[in-house]
Amino acid sequence: MKASARLSTLLPDGNDGWDLYRKALARQNAGMPVTMLTIGEHDIGTAPAILDAMDAAARRGLTGYAPVPGQNTLRARVAERIERMTGTATAEENVLIVPGGQAGLFASHIATLDPGDTALFVDPYYATYPGTIRGAGGLPRAIVTGPETRFCPSRDALAEAAPGARTLLINTPNNPTGQIYDRVTLEGIAEACIAHDLWLISDEVYETQVWKGAHLSPRALPGMAERTLVVGSMSKSHAMTGSRIGWVVGPAEIIAHMADLATHTTYGVPGFVQAAALWALQQGPDLEAEVSAPFRRRRALAEQALAGNNRIRALPSDATMYLMLDIRPTGLSGSAFAEALLEAEGIAVMPGESFGHAAAGHVRVAMTIEDEAFAEALARLARFAETCPSGTPTNYEET
Q: How would you classify this enzyme at the top EC level (predicted)?
Protein backbone atom coordinates (compact mmCIF):
# COMPACT_ATOMS: atom_id res chain seq x y z
CA MET A 1 0.00 0.00 0.00
CA LYS A 2 1.16 3.53 -0.77
CA ALA A 3 1.01 6.69 1.28
CA SER A 4 -1.20 9.50 0.02
CA ALA A 5 0.19 11.81 -2.62
CA ARG A 6 0.01 14.64 -0.09
CA LEU A 7 2.39 12.83 2.26
CA SER A 8 4.65 11.30 -0.36
CA THR A 9 5.24 14.74 -1.93
CA LEU A 10 5.63 16.61 1.37
CA LEU A 11 9.42 16.68 0.80
CA PRO A 12 9.94 16.45 -2.98
CA ASP A 13 13.71 15.95 -2.70
CA GLY A 14 13.44 13.80 0.44
CA ASN A 15 15.42 16.33 2.48
CA ASP A 16 13.79 18.04 5.47
CA GLY A 17 16.88 20.14 6.26
CA TRP A 18 17.77 18.33 9.49
CA ASP A 19 20.35 15.81 8.22
CA LEU A 20 23.29 17.53 9.95
CA TYR A 21 21.39 17.67 13.24
CA ARG A 22 20.61 13.96 13.06
CA LYS A 23 24.23 13.17 12.22
CA ALA A 24 25.37 15.17 15.27
CA LEU A 25 22.86 13.35 17.47
CA ALA A 26 24.15 10.01 16.20
CA ARG A 27 27.68 11.01 17.17
CA GLN A 28 26.50 12.02 20.63
CA ASN A 29 24.63 8.75 21.07
CA ALA A 30 27.79 6.90 20.09
CA GLY A 31 29.62 8.61 22.95
CA MET A 32 31.51 11.13 20.85
CA PRO A 33 31.77 14.70 22.19
CA VAL A 34 29.62 17.17 20.25
CA THR A 35 29.06 20.85 20.95
CA MET A 36 25.44 21.22 19.82
CA LEU A 37 24.64 24.61 18.29
CA THR A 38 21.84 23.39 16.05
CA ILE A 39 18.29 23.71 17.40
CA GLY A 40 16.54 26.38 19.43
CA GLU A 41 16.49 24.52 22.73
CA HIS A 42 17.16 26.69 25.79
CA ASP A 43 19.99 25.45 27.98
CA ILE A 44 18.24 26.78 31.12
CA GLY A 45 15.18 24.52 30.74
CA THR A 46 11.67 25.39 31.82
CA ALA A 47 11.60 27.39 35.07
CA PRO A 48 10.93 25.17 38.12
CA ALA A 49 8.07 27.46 39.16
CA ILE A 50 6.30 26.82 35.83
CA LEU A 51 6.75 23.09 36.33
CA ASP A 52 5.38 23.44 39.86
CA ALA A 53 2.30 25.16 38.46
CA MET A 54 1.90 22.37 35.91
CA ASP A 55 2.23 19.68 38.57
CA ALA A 56 -0.22 21.42 40.89
CA ALA A 57 -2.78 21.74 38.08
CA ALA A 58 -2.48 18.07 37.20
CA ARG A 59 -2.84 17.03 40.84
CA ARG A 60 -5.97 19.10 41.28
CA GLY A 61 -7.59 17.28 38.40
CA LEU A 62 -6.81 19.10 35.15
CA THR A 63 -5.84 15.85 33.44
CA GLY A 64 -9.03 15.23 31.48
CA TYR A 65 -10.32 16.74 28.27
CA ALA A 66 -9.81 20.49 28.12
CA PRO A 67 -11.94 22.96 26.11
CA VAL A 68 -10.79 22.59 22.52
CA PRO A 69 -10.40 26.32 21.76
CA GLY A 70 -8.50 26.68 25.02
CA GLN A 71 -9.40 27.52 28.59
CA ASN A 72 -11.23 30.85 28.72
CA THR A 73 -8.82 32.25 31.30
CA LEU A 74 -5.80 31.49 29.12
CA ARG A 75 -7.42 32.81 25.94
CA ALA A 76 -8.30 36.03 27.76
CA ARG A 77 -4.77 36.35 29.12
CA VAL A 78 -3.23 35.88 25.66
CA ALA A 79 -5.67 38.44 24.26
CA GLU A 80 -4.70 40.95 26.96
CA ARG A 81 -1.00 40.34 26.29
CA ILE A 82 -1.38 40.78 22.52
CA GLU A 83 -3.41 43.96 22.93
CA ARG A 84 -0.90 45.40 25.38
CA MET A 85 2.08 44.61 23.15
CA THR A 86 0.55 45.67 19.82
CA GLY A 87 -2.09 48.28 20.66
CA THR A 88 -4.59 46.30 18.58
CA ALA A 89 -7.96 45.41 20.10
CA THR A 90 -7.95 41.68 20.88
CA ALA A 91 -10.60 39.63 22.69
CA GLU A 92 -10.90 36.05 23.87
CA GLU A 93 -12.79 35.06 20.71
CA ASN A 94 -9.78 36.15 18.63
CA VAL A 95 -7.56 33.52 20.28
CA LEU A 96 -7.22 29.79 19.65
CA ILE A 97 -4.89 27.78 21.90
CA VAL A 98 -2.89 25.23 19.91
CA PRO A 99 -0.26 22.56 20.70
CA GLY A 100 2.74 24.68 19.75
CA GLY A 101 3.64 27.12 17.02
CA GLN A 102 4.08 24.43 14.37
CA ALA A 103 0.51 23.25 14.89
CA GLY A 104 -0.57 26.88 14.64
CA LEU A 105 1.21 27.29 11.30
CA PHE A 106 -0.38 24.16 9.88
CA ALA A 107 -3.86 25.06 11.12
CA SER A 108 -3.52 28.59 9.74
CA HIS A 109 -2.73 27.28 6.27
CA ILE A 110 -5.53 24.70 6.42
CA ALA A 111 -7.87 27.56 7.36
CA THR A 112 -6.86 29.86 4.51
CA LEU A 113 -5.93 27.59 1.57
CA ASP A 114 -7.99 25.45 -0.73
CA PRO A 115 -6.22 22.53 -2.44
CA GLY A 116 -3.99 23.83 -5.21
CA ASP A 117 -3.86 27.42 -3.95
CA THR A 118 -0.50 29.17 -4.13
CA ALA A 119 1.04 30.06 -0.78
CA LEU A 120 3.94 32.49 -0.54
CA PHE A 121 6.78 32.37 1.98
CA VAL A 122 10.03 34.27 2.35
CA ASP A 123 13.39 32.63 1.65
CA PRO A 124 15.37 32.16 3.96
CA TYR A 125 12.72 30.36 5.97
CA TYR A 126 12.30 28.06 8.92
CA ALA A 127 12.89 24.56 7.59
CA THR A 128 9.29 23.31 7.97
CA TYR A 129 7.57 26.07 6.00
CA PRO A 130 7.38 24.52 2.48
CA GLY A 131 6.33 21.13 3.86
CA THR A 132 3.70 22.74 6.07
CA ILE A 133 2.20 24.42 3.01
CA ARG A 134 2.25 21.20 0.99
CA GLY A 135 0.68 19.32 3.89
CA ALA A 136 -2.17 21.83 3.88
CA GLY A 137 -2.71 21.22 0.16
CA GLY A 138 -1.04 24.43 -1.04
CA LEU A 139 1.62 25.08 -3.63
CA PRO A 140 4.61 26.80 -2.01
CA ARG A 141 6.18 29.74 -3.84
CA ALA A 142 9.30 31.35 -2.40
CA ILE A 143 10.04 35.07 -2.36
CA VAL A 144 13.83 35.03 -2.47
CA THR A 145 15.72 37.72 -0.55
CA GLY A 146 19.41 38.34 -0.02
CA PRO A 147 22.05 40.02 2.13
CA GLU A 148 21.66 43.26 0.20
CA THR A 149 18.16 43.70 1.72
CA ARG A 150 19.17 42.11 5.06
CA PHE A 151 17.03 39.15 3.94
CA CYS A 152 13.83 41.21 4.07
CA PRO A 153 11.34 41.04 1.15
CA SER A 154 11.30 44.12 -1.08
CA ARG A 155 8.19 45.74 -2.51
CA ASP A 156 9.25 44.70 -6.01
CA ALA A 157 9.72 41.06 -4.99
CA LEU A 158 6.35 41.03 -3.26
CA ALA A 159 4.61 42.62 -6.24
CA GLU A 160 6.15 40.06 -8.59
CA ALA A 161 5.20 37.05 -6.47
CA ALA A 162 1.75 38.05 -5.19
CA PRO A 163 -0.52 37.79 -8.27
CA GLY A 164 -2.57 34.59 -8.09
CA ALA A 165 -1.46 33.70 -4.56
CA ARG A 166 -3.80 33.18 -1.62
CA THR A 167 -1.54 33.49 1.44
CA LEU A 168 1.77 34.98 2.52
CA LEU A 169 3.77 33.55 5.43
CA ILE A 170 6.32 35.78 7.14
CA ASN A 171 8.49 35.37 10.23
CA THR A 172 9.57 38.39 12.25
CA PRO A 173 11.74 38.41 14.28
CA ASN A 174 13.23 35.98 11.81
CA ASN A 175 14.66 32.50 12.13
CA PRO A 176 17.32 31.90 10.77
CA THR A 177 18.57 35.43 10.04
CA GLY A 178 17.89 37.25 13.32
CA GLN A 179 16.37 40.17 11.38
CA ILE A 180 13.38 42.23 12.48
CA TYR A 181 11.18 43.47 9.66
CA ASP A 182 11.04 47.25 10.03
CA ARG A 183 7.93 49.37 9.47
CA VAL A 184 8.80 50.10 5.83
CA THR A 185 9.12 46.38 5.07
CA LEU A 186 5.89 45.56 6.89
CA GLU A 187 4.03 48.36 5.15
CA GLY A 188 5.17 46.90 1.84
CA ILE A 189 3.90 43.50 2.94
CA ALA A 190 0.55 45.02 3.99
CA GLU A 191 0.30 46.85 0.69
CA ALA A 192 0.81 43.60 -1.26
CA CYS A 193 -1.68 41.69 0.91
CA ILE A 194 -4.40 44.30 0.48
CA ALA A 195 -3.76 44.82 -3.24
CA HIS A 196 -3.83 41.09 -4.01
CA ASP A 197 -6.35 39.99 -1.35
CA LEU A 198 -3.90 37.76 0.51
CA TRP A 199 -4.20 36.27 3.95
CA LEU A 200 -1.09 37.11 5.97
CA ILE A 201 0.20 34.43 8.33
CA SER A 202 2.68 36.05 10.70
CA ASP A 203 4.97 33.79 12.72
CA GLU A 204 5.95 35.89 15.75
CA VAL A 205 7.25 33.27 18.16
CA TYR A 206 10.49 35.24 18.77
CA GLU A 207 8.74 38.50 19.71
CA THR A 208 10.35 38.56 23.19
CA GLN A 209 13.91 38.05 21.90
CA VAL A 210 14.66 41.53 20.55
CA TRP A 211 18.14 43.02 21.00
CA LYS A 212 18.01 46.08 18.78
CA GLY A 213 15.05 48.08 17.51
CA ALA A 214 11.47 47.00 18.14
CA HIS A 215 9.12 44.30 16.95
CA LEU A 216 6.00 45.51 15.12
CA SER A 217 3.20 43.04 14.50
CA PRO A 218 1.73 43.54 11.01
CA ARG A 219 -1.72 42.89 12.49
CA ALA A 220 -1.44 46.38 13.99
CA LEU A 221 -1.17 48.09 10.58
CA PRO A 222 -4.25 49.71 8.99
CA GLY A 223 -6.48 47.23 7.19
CA MET A 224 -4.53 44.18 8.36
CA ALA A 225 -6.34 42.88 11.47
CA GLU A 226 -9.10 41.36 9.34
CA ARG A 227 -6.68 39.48 7.07
CA THR A 228 -3.89 38.44 9.47
CA LEU A 229 -3.36 35.32 11.54
CA VAL A 230 -0.60 35.68 14.13
CA VAL A 231 1.09 32.52 15.39
CA GLY A 232 2.63 32.72 18.87
CA SER A 233 4.16 30.23 21.26
CA MET A 234 5.40 29.71 24.80
CA SER A 235 8.33 27.69 23.47
CA LYS A 236 10.81 30.51 22.99
CA SER A 237 9.43 33.19 25.32
CA HIS A 238 9.20 30.90 28.36
CA ALA A 239 11.53 27.97 27.51
CA MET A 240 8.52 25.62 27.27
CA THR A 241 9.52 23.87 24.04
CA GLY A 242 8.39 20.40 25.10
CA SER A 243 5.12 21.58 26.62
CA ARG A 244 3.76 22.21 23.11
CA ILE A 245 1.55 25.22 23.70
CA GLY A 246 0.95 28.30 21.61
CA TRP A 247 -1.83 30.25 19.95
CA VAL A 248 -3.26 31.70 16.79
CA VAL A 249 -4.77 35.19 16.92
CA GLY A 250 -7.08 36.39 14.15
CA PRO A 251 -10.60 37.43 13.18
CA ALA A 252 -13.22 35.78 15.41
CA GLU A 253 -15.02 34.06 12.53
CA ILE A 254 -11.99 32.20 11.22
CA ILE A 255 -10.82 31.41 14.75
CA ALA A 256 -14.19 29.70 15.32
CA HIS A 257 -13.67 27.63 12.15
CA MET A 258 -10.17 26.74 13.33
CA ALA A 259 -11.62 25.55 16.65
CA ASP A 260 -13.79 23.17 14.61
CA LEU A 261 -10.62 21.97 12.86
CA ALA A 262 -8.96 21.41 16.24
CA THR A 263 -11.93 19.27 17.32
CA HIS A 264 -11.17 16.98 14.39
CA THR A 265 -7.37 16.95 14.74
CA THR A 266 -5.59 17.78 18.00
CA TYR A 267 -8.65 17.94 20.27
CA GLY A 268 -7.04 20.71 22.25
CA VAL A 269 -4.13 21.06 24.68
CA PRO A 270 -3.95 19.33 28.10
CA GLY A 271 -5.49 21.41 30.84
CA PHE A 272 -2.48 21.16 33.17
CA VAL A 273 -0.23 22.53 30.40
CA GLN A 274 -2.65 25.40 29.81
CA ALA A 275 -2.69 26.16 33.55
CA ALA A 276 1.12 26.34 33.60
CA ALA A 277 1.08 28.63 30.57
CA LEU A 278 -1.45 30.89 32.29
CA TRP A 279 0.72 31.07 35.41
CA ALA A 280 3.78 31.88 33.30
CA LEU A 281 2.02 34.66 31.40
CA GLN A 282 0.75 36.14 34.65
CA GLN A 283 4.37 36.74 35.70
CA GLY A 284 4.59 39.39 32.99
CA PRO A 285 7.59 40.66 31.01
CA ASP A 286 10.12 40.12 33.81
CA LEU A 287 10.09 36.34 33.37
CA GLU A 288 10.28 36.69 29.59
CA ALA A 289 13.30 38.98 29.97
CA GLU A 290 14.97 36.45 32.26
CA VAL A 291 14.50 33.69 29.68
CA SER A 292 15.85 35.81 26.83
CA ALA A 293 18.79 37.38 28.70
CA PRO A 294 21.36 34.63 27.90
CA PHE A 295 20.96 35.18 24.17
CA ARG A 296 21.57 38.90 24.46
CA ARG A 297 24.83 38.14 26.31
CA ARG A 298 25.90 35.48 23.83
CA ARG A 299 25.27 37.75 20.87
CA ALA A 300 27.92 40.08 22.33
CA LEU A 301 30.26 37.15 23.01
CA ALA A 302 29.97 36.03 19.40
CA GLU A 303 30.81 39.49 18.10
CA GLN A 304 33.98 39.43 20.22
CA ALA A 305 34.95 35.91 19.15
CA LEU A 306 34.56 36.66 15.44
CA ALA A 307 36.03 40.17 15.38
CA GLY A 308 38.71 40.53 12.74
CA ASN A 309 38.16 37.13 11.14
CA ASN A 310 38.62 37.36 7.37
CA ARG A 311 36.85 34.13 6.49
CA ILE A 312 33.66 34.40 8.48
CA ARG A 313 31.33 37.17 9.54
CA ALA A 314 28.26 37.30 11.75
CA LEU A 315 25.42 39.06 9.98
CA PRO A 316 23.86 41.87 12.00
CA SER A 317 21.42 40.13 14.35
CA ASP A 318 18.71 42.25 15.92
CA ALA A 319 16.77 39.43 17.55
CA THR A 320 16.29 35.70 18.28
CA MET A 321 18.54 33.00 19.73
CA TYR A 322 20.46 32.49 16.49
CA LEU A 323 23.31 33.98 14.48
CA MET A 324 23.77 33.68 10.73
CA LEU A 325 27.41 33.41 9.74
CA ASP A 326 28.55 34.26 6.23
CA ILE A 327 31.22 31.66 5.41
CA ARG A 328 31.48 32.22 1.65
CA PRO A 329 35.13 33.38 1.77
CA THR A 330 36.10 29.88 2.96
CA GLY A 331 35.21 28.55 -0.48
CA LEU A 332 32.76 26.07 1.05
CA SER A 333 29.01 25.82 0.90
CA GLY A 334 27.11 26.03 4.15
CA SER A 335 26.54 22.28 4.03
CA ALA A 336 30.18 21.45 3.34
CA PHE A 337 31.38 23.82 6.05
CA ALA A 338 28.98 22.36 8.63
CA GLU A 339 29.97 18.80 7.75
CA ALA A 340 33.68 19.60 7.93
CA LEU A 341 33.28 21.52 11.20
CA LEU A 342 31.46 18.61 12.81
CA GLU A 343 34.13 16.16 11.64
CA ALA A 344 37.13 18.29 12.60
CA GLU A 345 35.96 20.07 15.75
CA GLY A 346 32.89 18.20 16.96
CA ILE A 347 30.83 21.40 16.66
CA ALA A 348 27.39 21.10 15.12
CA VAL A 349 25.77 24.08 13.36
CA MET A 350 22.96 24.19 10.82
CA PRO A 351 23.83 24.66 7.13
CA GLY A 352 22.27 27.74 5.60
CA GLU A 353 20.95 25.56 2.79
CA SER A 354 18.57 23.96 5.32
CA PHE A 355 16.72 27.30 5.29
CA GLY A 356 16.52 27.94 1.56
CA HIS A 357 18.51 29.06 -1.46
CA ALA A 358 19.01 32.59 -0.13
CA ALA A 359 20.96 31.28 2.87
CA ALA A 360 23.45 29.25 0.81
CA GLY A 361 27.02 29.96 1.84
CA HIS A 362 25.97 30.63 5.42
CA VAL A 363 25.50 28.60 8.60
CA ARG A 364 23.12 29.20 11.49
CA VAL A 365 24.44 29.04 15.04
CA ALA A 366 22.07 28.48 17.94
CA MET A 367 23.29 30.37 21.03
CA THR A 368 22.05 27.62 23.31
CA ILE A 369 24.93 26.52 25.53
CA GLU A 370 26.31 28.30 28.58
CA ASP A 371 28.37 31.43 28.02
CA GLU A 372 31.92 30.16 28.53
CA ALA A 373 31.37 27.06 26.39
CA PHE A 374 29.67 29.16 23.72
CA ALA A 375 32.54 31.64 23.54
CA GLU A 376 35.04 28.77 23.29
CA ALA A 377 33.01 27.08 20.53
CA LEU A 378 32.86 30.31 18.50
CA ALA A 379 36.61 30.79 18.89
CA ARG A 380 37.23 27.24 17.67
CA LEU A 381 34.81 27.77 14.79
CA ALA A 382 36.65 30.96 13.81
CA ARG A 383 40.03 29.19 13.90
CA PHE A 384 38.62 26.37 11.79
CA ALA A 385 37.37 28.88 9.20
CA GLU A 386 40.90 30.28 8.92
CA THR A 387 42.20 26.84 7.92
CA CYS A 388 39.74 26.47 5.04
CA PRO A 389 40.99 27.12 1.52
CA SER A 390 40.11 30.60 0.36
CA GLY A 391 37.26 30.95 -2.09
CA THR A 392 36.07 34.04 -3.89
CA PRO A 393 36.59 37.02 -1.57
CA THR A 394 33.40 38.55 -0.23
CA ASN A 395 33.10 42.32 -0.17
CA TYR A 396 31.36 42.74 3.15
CA GLU A 397 30.91 46.46 2.54
CA GLU A 398 28.56 45.61 -0.34
CA THR A 399 26.63 42.83 1.38
A: transferase
Would you say residue 272 lies in a domain? Answer: yes
* pTM given for the model: 0.95
Distance CA 122, CA 115 (A): 21
Pair (37, 152) in one structural domain:
no
Q: Which domain holds residue 381?
A: 5-45+286-385
Handedness of CA 342, 347, 352, 353 (dihedral sign): positive
Amino acid in position 350: M
DSSP single-letter state for residue 238: S
Q: How many CA atoms lie within 13 A of 122 on its CB side?
A: 30
Select the more confidently predicted residue: 317 or 131. Answer: 131
CB 244 within 8 A of CB 98: no
Whether residues 196 and 71 share a domain: the answer is: yes
- pLDDT of res. 398: 37
Where does the chain have alpha helices with state H?
5-8, 19-29, 48-59, 72-86, 101-112, 129-135, 155-161, 183-195, 234-237, 252-263, 271-282, 285-306, 334-345, 371-387
Contacts of 387 (CB under 8 A, 6+ apart): none
Domain edge (last residue) among 237, 264, 283: 283
Give residue 392's Cα distance to chain centre.
31
Per the CB < 8 A criterion, the answer to whether 234 and 259 are in contact is no
Q: pLDDT per residue over 63-109, tens digit each?
A: 999 999 999 999 999 999 999 999 999 999 999 999 999 999 999 99
Assign residue 297 the CATH number of its domain.
Answer: 3.90.1150.10
State the pairing for strand pair 118-123/139-144.
parallel
CB 352 within 8 A of CB 359: yes
Residue 398 belongs to a domain: no
In this structure, the answer to whether residues 225 and 165 fall within a common structural domain is yes
190, part of any domain = yes
**Beta bridge mates, 347:** 35
- The answer to whether the CB of 71 falls within 8 A of the CB of 278 is yes
Q: Which residues contact 58 (CB under 8 A, 6 or more apart)?
A: 272
Sign of the CA dihedral 12, 18, 24, 25? negative
Partners of 228 in the β-ladder: 200
